[in-house]
Structure formats: structure tokens, C-alpha cells
Amino acid sequence: MKKARIAVLVSGGGTNLQALIDAEKKGILKSGTISLVVASNPNAFALERAAIAGIPCDIAWKKVLGSQEAFEDKILELIEVYKIDLIVLAGFMAILSERFTSRFPKRIINVHPSLIPSFCGKGFYGLRVHEAALEYGVKVTGATVHFVNEIPDGGEILMQKAVSIRPDDTPETLQKRVMRLAEWKILPMAVEQVSAEIVK
Q: Burial letters for 128-146: b for 16+ Cβ neighbours within 10 Å, e otherwise?
């Protein structure tokens, strides 16, 4: 059976990457296979997770490459070499320009730790999202998987899952719970859904 070849772009610990690796092992992700991991910095622990799983990995470090264009060109080059069908942004802390995203309509997906359109867009990433949710006093948050276009967090929504906020939550406890109950569940499901469409 033909499978969609997936590149996962990462920046940090790689917990969402791990959720995808585990989903592929369990057969939840069956229409696609993780064929490449690209980190935006050489110290990303996600690279170790990829190595343990035997997945080819590489680094596109803007600091060394010098410009947004060179950074994106490096990723484009890798995507071509590994014949990638689908790009998954999993805790990827870099914004990709329209020059990049327009080449892959409905072929780039991202997981965001809130229920879009709340707490999203420029400046909302990592713990900041959860801090904002708690400051605002919302009772429910969650995660969203969406297609990526030139607008940060602006692409078509694929899946969402809600998570209740507890009175004693801190940004850190909320972040962990949103990952466990929402991100790690819907990201593999959405990747499978899009991979199945690509294969078809």
C-alpha cells in the first residue's frame, strides 16, 4: 500500500512528534509514514526522538543560514530530496512565509494549543497561549489542528478538542493537560485523515 511521506518540523522537546511516532507504531497513522524530521535548532530534543525511532533528521538553523529565504530554501531542498507529500508543524517555532506556504496548498498542517480563533495568531505560541487563556478567565480551552497558509493560525480548521480549565491551573499544568488530552490525540488523527486523502 502506498503511503504519504511525511516531514515533521520541530523546534523543541518533540512531544507531538513522539505522539505521531507512537501513532504510526500503533497503526492509528496507517496512510502515512514519517520520513523526515527537520529541527529549527540543533539542540531540539526532538532530534533524539527521531534518531531513536530511526527517522532521518536534519537541521535548518536560521541563525547559521542567515536569512528567512535561506532557511526556507534549506527546508524546501530537504522536502524535495525526501519526496515529501505532507508537512506537519509540531511545536515548530518559526513562521513560514507565503513564498513557502503557497507551494503546498492543503499539504502543511499545524497543531495550535487553543481553540482557534481564540488566543492565536502572531505572538501566540508555547506557554503564552495558556497564560492568555488563564488571564482572560475562559473556562474551556483545547487544541486545534489546521491547514497552514500565509496567515499565522489562519488556515482551514481540520480538528479541535476541548479541555476544561481548572480553578487551580497554572500555565504549565494547563499546557501539559492540553497536550495530553487534546494535541496528542487530534494531531495523529488529522495527519491520518490528510494522508489518506493524499494517497487516494
A: ebbbbbbeeeeeebbbbbb
Strands 140-147 and 4-10: unpaired
C-alpha cell at 43: 539542540
Report the alpha-carbon distance of residue 180 to residue 9 in Å, rounded: 20
pLDDT digits over 44-82, tens only?
999 999 999 999 999 999 999 999 999 999 999 999 999
Q: What angle do CA 71, 55, 9 make, to 5 degrees?
A: 30
Of 44, 49, 48, 47, the residue nearest 12 (C-alpha): 44
The answer to whether the Cα torsion of 32, 54, 187, 58 is positive or negative is negative
> Residue 52 is placed in which grid cell?
531513536
The strand pair at 86-89 and 108-112 is best described as parallel
β-strands 157-164, 140-147: how paired?
A: antiparallel
CB 69 within 8 A of CB 47: no
Q: Which three cell numbers stand for residue 71?
A: 532557511
Residues with a catalytic annotation lie at 112
Backbone angles phi, psi at 23, to 5 degrees: -65, -35
Selection from 41, 46, 45 nearest residue 20 by Cα: 46
List, in sequence order, every beta strand (DSSP E) within 113-200: 140-147, 157-164
Residue that is written with C-alpha cell 500565509 in the block: 150
pTM over 0.85: yes
